[in-house]
Amino acid sequence: MGATDEGRRSKFSKFESLPEQRREAIVSAAVETFGKNDYKGASTEDIARRAGISKGLLFFYFKNKKELYLYLMEHLMEKVSDLVVDDAFYEIDDFFELLVYAAETKRKVLSRFPYLLEFSVRAFYPEHKDIKDTMDGWTQRQIDVMFTTYFRCVRFDRFRDDIDPKYVLDLLIWLADGYLHQQRALHQRLDMDAMLDEMYRWCDMLKAYSYKEEYR
């Protein structure tokens, strides 16, 4: 358990001490509400009602909506990471194969948790002033941590000498960002399968560009 996890558990000790079934009911209710609505439109009264508790009790565990929202981000990131980073994860030493494996596993995880994908996309594009600066900084920190933690077994010697692997990861993130922006501008519901098909095409192109010839 990392220092961040310990700090979160200490800060939310009242909530973390609840029986798992009750905690999950509140988390599920909050993810559904934030997934269906933007931050401003998400009602804590609806969250409490869906979870089967009073609004006053919800604010006993979280002092305000922002605190609940940020707790959800940390909790869900940890949960998804635990499910995605399994025994086979660190056996993969190819940069692009690891990305594909993680994406396929995440697809299975997201299919098990309704509204988690919608919640994640809204969190990636925060608009309300209460959370925008916090979430923008949080997202960048997660990208930095992801690279140093999850790619530690990757053979970076497969990349051309003039290519920075971190820059390749940034390119993939920018491509995904552009794709999501386009879907949102067209008011299209995000299709995870279609997005992953695009990602695999990006990976093939970037692998051909960035790997040494013998590893393409």
Automatic annotation (TrEMBL):
Keywords from the UniProt entry: DNA-binding
One MF annotation (Gene Ontology) recorded for this entry: DNA binding
Domain HTH tetR-type positions: 20-80
InterPro entries in the cross-refs: Homeodomain-like_sf (IPR009057), HTH-type_TetR-like_transc_reg (IPR050109), HTH_TetR (IPR001647), Tet_transcr_reg_TetR-rel_C_sf (IPR036271)
Residue ranges the UniProt entry marks as DNA-binding: 43-62
SUPFAM superfamilies: Homeodomain-like (SSF46689), Tetracyclin repressor-like, C-terminal domain (SSF48498)
Protein name, per record: Transcriptional regulator
Species in which this protein is naturally found: Gordonibacter pamelaeae 7-10-1-b
